[in-house]
Amino acid sequence: MPHHLLFILLAVLVLTFGPNAALAQDATSSKSWQERTAAHARILSQVRWTPVAGTLPNRKGGFFEAGKECTGVPYSSVRSEGRYIGFDIGLRTFLAAVENPLSVLYTENLTGKVSNAAAFYGTVCSSYTSYALQCGIWEVSRRYGPGISDGIRLVEPQSAEAAQVGDVIYTPHATETSGSHVEMVTAVTKDDQGRVISVRIEESRPPTTATTERNAAAFNKHLASRNKQLFRITDLNAWRGTNRSEPLLFPNYEADATPPKINRTLLLDLGDWVPYQKGKAVKFHVMDRDKLGVKSLIIRRGEKVVEEIALEGPGVHERSFDTCGDYTAHVVHKDGSLIQACEFAVCDLDLRLPKGKVPMNGGWQVGFSAENIRPIVIYLWNEADSYGRHPLFLSDEQRLAGSLTIPDDLLKKPGKLQVWLIGEHKLGRLKMRKDIVIAP
Question: Class assignment of domain 353-439?
Answer without folding.
Answer: mainly beta
